[in-house]
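User: Hi! I'm working on a homework problem where we have to compare a predicted structure to a textbook description. Could you give me the structure for the chain below?
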Amino acid sequence: MTETARAEARRRAGQGPTAARAGIAGTPFGEQITASGIAFAAVGGPLETRWHRALTELAQCIRPIADAAVLNEGGVYDGCWLESTGTINTDVLARFAPDIAADTLRQFAQLQREDGMLPYKVTPDGPGFSQIQIVTPLARVVWRHHQRTGDDALLRRMYDAMVRYDAWLARYRDTRGSGGVEAFCTFDTGHDLSPRFWFAPDRAFRADARQIDPGSATMPYIAPDLTANVACQRSYLAVIAEALGEDPRPWRDAAQRSLDALYTQCFHDEDALFYDRDRSGRPVRIASDVLLRVLACEVGDADFFAASLRRYLMHTGKFLAHYGFTTIAMDDPRFDHDASRNSWAGPVNFLAQLRAPDAFEQHGHVAELALTAQPTLAALAVADAFPQCLDPWSGAAGFTEVYSPSILWFLDALERHSGILPHHDGTVWFSGLTPTRLEHGAAAEAIAYARTIGGADWELVADDELVEVHRDGELAFSFPRGWRVQTDAAGGVIAVIGLAAQPVEGELMIAGARAGASAVVPLRVAPNERITLSGGAIGVREARPFVSPVF
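Assistant: Happy to help. Predicted structure tokens:
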């Protein structure tokens, strides 16, 4: 690849306001995109066009439900769902449009019921309370938003609402006194059509989330994903309580009780999976994306996660299809790859893909996450829609379109693996797994990605060999394709991380303005390896063993 292609990508990224190119100028989302300084360009292939189309369609998902413009789920779903729109979708959206993310969070507190229940959805018809439908911990999303924005008023309001909801769940969703959290119906976990809930009602009895159908043969389940959600939720309530000057210890203790219940009630030693326990005490032995949900709730240590990768998540006979993580293990006879409907019985669902980084990144398995994302990225790049589901065999777009989780996954994947990502911890990730090797005509020759962070204008320009990072128009550092460079908020290099599936050898060049004197650091970086640096000097090296796809 040539310097000419990189220069062309950089020129195109600076051609004009991103909001205008995406046709969203003057919209609330367009204003936030302009404020962020985000731009993207790709020389060759469809990625540049699809990226701007993603912004166009995401803007269509941002519209008022009551007063303020908030994120809507999109597709056939008119409204905002707590399990997705109001949590994981908003978590990603906050990097692009923090004000809209704040309003999306705030509406759930505003519409909380008097008894403490948060609505599972908010639509133009009002709030819904017929099920709980929780997956990604709301408290983690709220805390990350506070880390990014420092919005103390929102933190306090959401904390008070979440405290009341925790009490509601403890009162109504632990009828067996197990310490876990119970599912009363299919929609409590959003697992439409999943064999996990065969012979269970879709909604709670008489559309009241406090009631169990007395005639059900199986309900209630002590549900591992719901229990893990509350364990993680309580851990972050402890963090928020401490930030607000309150005692975090009761929340930490409560989180541990939830975690104990999860393992006591739901963990199967032989299978190393978490299963529902039905009303008769039997495990519901269906291997599903419950595993990924539990791991994304920060359950389990590094060894357990690596074992889960080898046995399940990176296993091509279990959950790793070529086009993403499936929702039922592929060797289960009940597996159904039909992606033409809202199904969690097998197809690749973009909500599951969007939740995956919270599991993989926590344990440093960034190279596996990047590897598994590439075919899915190629599939969306050449698709004619942003769907809810993909066919796991072909990558063909399935059910619905203009769906915010798939749009956000596309934006996140490009930024996470080959762009500039301002992390909620205050660091900045400059990632160099440039999308130059995608299949099916999706590859670019070179790309450019821009963001404004802390008043500085950053640009990442990359081809199949080299990644250059510029600050305010001047070269700051460069490195080979396949690495991620992590900086502090001021742009000082603090670490290099291996994103590629094989070791990558090359040089990190740090320009003089950042290091006191120009420095060239030769490195060989293995997959998942993290090498700390200070002033250009190598510090600690640590790595997680890379798990290749298992056949």
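For your comparison, note the following. The mean pLDDT is 96. The CA atoms of residues 423 and 536 lie 22 Å apart. Good luck with the assignment!
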